[in-house]
Design goal:
alpha+beta
């Protein structure tokens, strides 16, 4: 399962490009209605480690969740969504052509749920570390 598929299965809205394909690195346009949680992801590639006949790579994927309602229920919803993301991280296979080294994604660090006074919504973030082995 890809990270985008996991987010979609949890009911999170993702941006789509002009062809209709999921583009989770973009902000949905137009923005979803208030109370609808949407995600924006970003990735960074770690330095590869060369072994005998293989290369191990780590990719950090930051998932930012926005749009939760401006009340206690919205905060609880976002906290619950983060808990499900962390619990199901092992199901993530971001690049099916590469072999996962350590059983899927592992939660790296969390940005706790916060309230944005300008947009009147809650937001939060979770970074995942994905480690792959690539035959050379």
């Amino acid at each position: 399962m890809t990270l985008d598929q996991l987010l979609d299965s949890l009911g999170v809205r993702l941006a789509r490009d002009d062809t209709g394909a999921v583009a989770s690195h973009m902000v949905p346009n137009p923005l979803p209605e208030p109370g609808t949680i949407y995600a924006v992801t970003s990735e960074t590639e770690g330095a590869p480690v060369q072994g005998h006949g293989f290369q191990e790579r780590q990719r950090l994927v930051l998932v930012m969740l926005y749009g939760a309602a401006p009340n206690a229920a919205g905060k609880r919803t976002l906290d619950l969504l983060l808990a499900h993301l962390k619990a199901r991280a092992g199901e993530v296979d971001r690049h099916p052509t590469l072999r996962l080294r350590h059983g899927g994604a592992s939660p790296a660090d969390t940005m706790p749920t916060r309230f944005d006074r300008d947009t009147r919504t809650h937001y939060a973030g979770q970074r995942f570390a994905l480690t792959y082995v690539h035959s050379t």
